[in-house]
Structures are given as C-alpha cells and as structure tokens.
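Hi again,

Forgot to attach this to my earlier email, sorry! This is the prediction with 5'-O-[(L-methionyl)-sulphamoyl]adenosine bound. I've pasted everything inline since the attachment limit keeps bouncing my files.
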Amino acid sequence: MKRHDDERFYMTTAIAYTSGKPHIGNTYEAILADSIARFRRMQGYDVFFQTGTDEHGQKIEDRAGAAGKTPKQYVDEISGTVREVWDCMNVSYDKFIRTTDPDHMERVQKIFKKMHAKGDIYKDYYEGMYCKECEAFYTPSQIEDGKCPDCGSEVHPAKEEAYFFRMSKYADRLIEHINTHPEFIQPVSRKNEMMNNFLLPGLQDLCVSRTSFKWGIPVDFDPGHVVYVWLDALSNYITGIGFDAEGNSTEQYKKLWPADLHLVGKDIIRFHTIYWPIFLMSLDQELPKQVFGHPWLLQGESKMSKSRGNVLYADDLAGIFGVDAVRYFVLHEMPFENDGTITWELMTERVNSDLANILGNLVNRTISMSNKYFGGIVEDKGVYEEVDGDLKTVVTGTAPAVEEKMQHLRAADAITDIFNLFRRCNKYIDETTPWILAKEEDKKDRLATVLYNLTESIIIGATLLEPFMPETTGKILKQLNAVPRDYKDLDTFGLLENGTKVVEKTEILFARLDVNEVLEKAEELRQKQLAALGIKE
Ligand code: MSP
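Structure tokens for the complex follow:
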C-alpha cells in the first residue's frame, strides 16, 4: 500500500452552535470526520483536524438570558459540553476553535475591514422576513405559509441598517470554478442542487452585519454593528490556523491552506459552497479542495425533539452500548446520500449480530483455540490447503478496497469491507473445522497453520478497523499481543512472527444485549429528559 508521509491534510467539521448539548446527529458528523482523520493518519498523512463551536448570535443571547446567565457564561458551559461529548466519543481533533476566542475575533474584524476596503461590503438597509431560529432573512417567495422554509418557525418582517456583501460580483467566477472542479462539491447530487437552485437563478447580496443584538464580533469601524453569524462562523476555517487579512498569516496557515476537506451537513452546504468560496475570493485566498455534504441521522421516522424527550445523546448511548458500538452504528448505518435512521432496537440488533456475533466471537474463538491446542503460541507450520487461498485473497484485498472507499468518504462501505474480512474468517473456521483437526495427531501442524492464518487475518482486520473503532482495535491487538500493522504492509499476508503468544484469558469485546432491558433503560433516559424540562406525562 502506498504511504503518504510527506503530504499534509487539513480537514474540518462544521462548528456546532452552542445553543444546547449536541445530539447524536451533530455528534455523527464529528465521528465521521474523526474516522476520516484517523484513516489519513494511518496512511501517513500529516493531518490537521479542526472542529469547534459557533457561539455568537441572537438565539444564543436569548437562551443565555432565559437561563439567567451572561452569554459568555452560557457559551463557556455549552462549548465545554460539546468538547466533552467529542472527547467521550474519542474524536481526535487537533484544534477545537471557539468563535469567542480572542484571536478569532480579532482576525474576523480584519477580514471584515479588508472586504469593506475592497468595496465588497457596503452599507444599506435590510427589509425582509426574518427567522430568528435560523438567523436568516428570506425573500417573500421563499416563505411558506408565513413560516421559515428551513426550520418551519414563524418569520417576522424586519428592517434594519446592515452591511451587505456583494455576492453577484463573484458569481460567474464561482460557477466557472464549480464546473471545472467536479470534486469540489460532493456528493454530486448536492452540486446539482446548488447550481440549479441558487447559482443559476442569480445570487442575492448577503447581509453580513446586524445591529439588533450585541452578542457578536463588533465591527470596529462602525459601533453598533456586529458581524453577522455566517461570516464570523465560516471564517473559523482560516482564522483557526492563523490567517491574517493584513498579510501576516502564520507559517501554519501557509502550510495548511487550502483545506483538503470541509465536512458539513446537507443543510449548510449552501453556505459552504457559495458564500464561503466567495468570501475567500474577496480575500484573494485559494478555495478549499472539497466540501462534502453528509446526510442526516434521524431517530426512527421522526425528528428528535426535546419536548418528546426523544433526543438521543452520544454519551447516553455510549453508557448503554459502549463508545465503539455507537461509532460503529452511526458510521455503518448512514447511507452515503440519503438520511439514516437510529433506534434503540436497531442499535441492539447491530451490536448483537455484527459486533458480538461476527467480530467478538471470532476473536474469542481464535484466542481460545490457540490456548487450548498450543498453549497460546501462534506458529505457521507451513501446511497449506486450497481453502487458505481464498481467505488470503479476501484479507489482502481488504486494505485496497477500504482505501478506495475512504478516498470517496464512503465510511459505511469501508466498514462493510472490513466486516466481510471478519465474516470470511468465521467461514474459514467452519471450513477448516479446527476442533476435528485437533483430534488427529498428524493434523497438528495443519491446525497450527489454520490458527496462524486466523490470527494474521484478525491483525490485519483490526488494524484497518482503528479509524472507525479505535478502542476495539486496541483491545483486540492487546489480546493477540500484536502491534498494528504498518499501512504499507496491509496487503501482505504472513508478517506475524512465529512464536507470538496470545493472552490466556480473553476479554469479551461486546456482550450480547437483551432488547427489553435496553428499552427499559431508554425509557428511564426519556423520563429523565422530560423531568429536566419539567414536563409530566
Ligand atoms: N453553526 C452552524 C455551522 C457553522 S459552520 C461554519 C451549524 N451548527 S449546528 O450545530 O446546527 O450543526 C452542526 C453540524 O451538525 C452541521 O453540519 C449540521 O448539518 C449537522 N447536523 C445537525 N443535525 C444533524 C443530524 N440530525 N444528523 C446529521 N448531522 C446533523 O449548523
């Protein structure tokens, strides 16, 4: 396999609003990003993975007020919670940016000033229908029954002095860029949506400052105005690595920009593929190489809602299923383009069938047999049979297949390939029937080879699993007394040294769960959520 030791890879997630604790949907994005970052690191890339929190705006000012806190106290708490959830899920970010970081704020002020000096930002009045929830103005044609087209909340007429960004100035350049860079917006269906629904009909200028609330980055040359959330938020991708609009950007910025990947949810792809590239053009900076719009994770048929008490949180799920089971579930069950579904029943079913049966059993059986027949020593005695060929083909073919899938950010398919390797191993046990070989003295060497082949296959599979389920990889390799295989060797079979001794007692990787017990725990969590809101059923 080819390593990429001298290449850098800068990737980001969207920065989460600090309006409340992030649910499993927001967390899914961080986990997906983490699997991509970890896979690239395994390939040797010098990865810089940035995530963080988006902390300004009227909604947050309002929520803080309602909670009897200052906005800063409020965002400190929630940003801390976001970080805790990411940490709990083993999200291996290199930088956690907050839009209230003083250096971010200062850099945004300079960005605003530069755009203004260039004539790309001008002052005018905004009149239109405003959605407080989305912090966005809509034209009358976008409004549906007096409701916001994005979130369905009531919209209200509003007029205020504001700065605007001249979007139309750069529209042709952007259309040209999108047309000549097919990899820029992924998946392709999202590209068509952006072109047909937004760019081709003509771009409206975008409001980039507000005067009706205070909780934002002040426009330093015009007191009363604060930078409107999207310019503030999107800029995090460059301020976080040291961009300076006055020409004193850091070495880190020079090394990392343009970003290789912005990973965002489908709802905000418009901001990332239209407004963000145009802001960058205004700043004479290169455009990110790719914006990937992932689908959404929905709970059952319905949307998660606090008032129904059905909001799923990653840490609660991890408490019941374990961190890696949650990672496995969200990564494996999410289709590439369509929304995915999470339910307690589905999660239980996956843990039992895939994690306990296919993976856990395989590791457990293999280690137990090594102990039972050879005192834990794994040795290739060179007694091959035809059936070994197919096992080896599947095992050595997995890394190239996974690489190909991850190149296109198809994490679910990559995991399927890895589990097919484990499935193939289980089939190999059925085909070779070690317990029958063990009965005949002259089959001992064959039996040893079978167990060597299984152990070697598991090491390769477990190494490939690390980006998706890092704790599980660690546990498996520890039990096998093995180290992760180097990426370049993942398509080679037979590198495990003879004489390796596996642990005597296996640790159960995934316990089988009883669905009724899981549902009882789920109900307890739901009642707790409702009680916290003071809702009685
Ligand atoms: N603050 C903005 C992003 C600014 S980026 C410069 C924002 N925040 S958010 O907290 O609402 O969403 C953060 C990310 O989570 C977004 O990419 C969003 O699409 C994603 N998701 C929100 N709900 C989701 C699901 N139910 N499922 C999957 N992703 C979801 O938008």
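The first helix runs from residue 24 to 42. The pocket of 5'-O-[(L-methionyl)-sulphamoyl]adenosine is lined by residues 14-17, 25-26, 28-29, 54, 233-234, 264-265, 267-268, 296-297 (CB under 6 Å).

That should be everything now.

G.
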